[in-house]
Specification:
Elements (H helix, E strand, L loop, with lengths): L11 H62 L4 H32 L23 E6 L14 E15 L2 E14 L5 E2 L15 H12 L5 H10 L6 H27 L3 E13 L2 E12 L11 E7 L5 H6 L6 E4 L8 H4 L7 E4 L1 H12 L1 H10 L6 H19 L5 H24 L15
Parallel strand pairs: 1-3, 5-8, 8-9
Antiparallel strand pairs: 2-3, 3-4, 5-6, 6-7
Length: 450
């Protein structure tokens, strides 16, 4: 293919000017591309926020319909009550997600100049009770004009912001007053800045917000039950209002979670395990999982702060821990559940995972067979004898654990020397008993896995 020849400058100065012009054109194109990408990202965030808001609105309308049908037709059955509670739980999650998506859309729109952020329409809050306690906090007014520095100020008015706060067993509304003053010299208006609020509109105080979030996640109290409790105490806070505030709270705390997660997953060694948790589902209660990952280097002489992160899932499929540990590389101590990370996948990582299987899990089965008190109770009823092999296995494990307790906090070199001196003979003797009959009853497999 023939191309038109390019006219190149004949001297160095002209070439330099041409290169500068070309560079400026490329930078301008890059700035335009970055701005377009930011606009597209903001528009996508607005679309997600709008979709979440619509889903929350649909769930809210469905809940209102079911409540009206129950009041109209007098359906008082337990099944209908569970259905309404399930709809309230669904509304709670949808409104919380909608608030988080709204904040994400606002953050994305702040990086652009053309996209307006999406703002959800929230229901009008009911007024506070007339007999609720009020506390008036007046911020110190300015003593000089913020414009010219003059001292001849006269009060023009005030802005009052009411925040609902919680005091143990009583509520109060805090009125934060910001008085306005006008200068008689230059007629400029001076007013102290607005104080910090835990939520953007500031009608929920930080103590009350902390109580709501803790009751939901720490005490596993759903927001519909919290709303009922507030109503019994004379405060009207609907489930959607509480879910909206939880969305603000979780969004504000997400940077803290990210820091803890980064700290834990940067550790050289982790302890991973899961435990069951009941999850309320439609017409029944299912068994979910809480996945826990702990880093604690104090037994190994480390100075890093111990920490733990938690993830929740509705089942125990291996995709959940594999997602949690996708970026982790190091030592993982856990049970033998292969879902934490398949060996074939773990070895292909840039920093592979080294598995250190837990001896406490291995000891547990032997202990169940060697539990003298339990077997003594069973012997009275069924005559089950104590397993001598299991008893010796527990005794060997206890000896190893006692050695580990003695070297907790020592350096790696000191721990290695002690293990070579004291622990290795116990392991070697255990392996010898698995290969050939020995004098004692210990004829079980005893592998060194850590």
């Amino acid at each position: 293919m023939n191309s038109k020849p390019v006219d190149l400058p004949s001297d160095l100065a002209s070439a330099y000017v041409a290169l500068l012009a070309e560079r400026e054109a490329l930078l301008a194109e890059r700035d335009v591309a970055v701005a377009d990408a930011a606009n597209w990202e903001a528009e996508a965030a607005n679309a997600r926020a709008m979709l979440s808001d619509n889903e929350a609105l649909i769930a809210h309308l469905e809940l209102r319909i079911e409540k009206l049908k129950r009041e109209l037709y007098g359906q008082r059955s337990e099944r209908t009550a569970r259905l309404i509670e399930q709809l309230e739980l669904e509304l709670e999650e949808l409104v919380t997600s909608a608030t988080e998506d709204e904040l994400a859309a606002q953050a994305a729109a702040a990086k652009t100049q053309k996209v307006r952020p999406f703002t959800r329409k929230r229901p009008v809050r009911k007024p506070w009770p007339d007999d609720i306690e009020h506390e008036r906090v007046v911020i110190d007014p300015p003593t000089a004009c913020a414009c010219c520095g003059g001292s001849r100020l006269s009060k023009l008015g005030e802005d009052v912001n009411k925040t609902l706060e919680e005091v143990p067993r009583r509520f109060k509304v805090i009125e934060t007053v910001r008085e306005k003053f006008t200068c008689r010299d230059c007629e400029a208006i001076s007013q102290p800045p607005a104080p910090f609020h835990a939520t953007p509109r500031g009608f929920i105080g930080p103590h009350l917000l902390a109580t709501i979030v803790f009751d939901k996640f720490g005490m596993h109290s759903p927001l519909n039950r919290q709303s009922t409790r507030f109503k019994c105490e004379g405060i009207e806070l609907s489930t959607s209002t509480l879910a909206d505030q939880v969305g603000f709270g979780t969004s504000a705390l997400m940077p803290v979670f990210d820091l803890i997660e980064a700290h834990v997953l940067a550790a050289q060694r982790l302890f991973g395990d899961d435990t069951t948790i009941p999850i309320q589902a439609k017409d029944k209660c299912t068994t979910g999982r809480i996945w826990t990952y702990v880093c604690d280097d104090r037994p190994y002489g480390g100075a890093a702060a111990p920490a733990a992160i938690y993830y929740a899932s509705s089942d125990r499929r291996g995709e959940h821990p594999q997602k949690h540990l996708a970026e982790y590389g190091g030592i993982l101590q856990s049970d033998c559940y292969n879902g934490f990370e398949p060996l074939s996948v773990a070895k292909k990582k840039a920093v592979p995972i080294t598995f250190a299987f837990c001896h406490a899990h291995a000891r547990r089965k032997f202990f169940e067979l060697a539990d003298s008190q339990k077997n003594a109770r069973d012997r009275k009823r069924k005559g089950k004898p104590i397993s001598p092999i299991a008893l010796e296995a527990v005794q060997r494990y206890d000896a190893l654990f006692e050695i580990e307790r003695q070297i907790n906090g020592l350096s790696a070199e000191e721990r290695l020397a002690t293990r070579q001196e004291k622990s290795k003979p116990l392991f070697d003797d255990g392996k010898r008993c698995t290969k050939a009959p020995c004098n004692g009853p210990m004829n079980v497999e005893f592998r060194a896995t850590t």
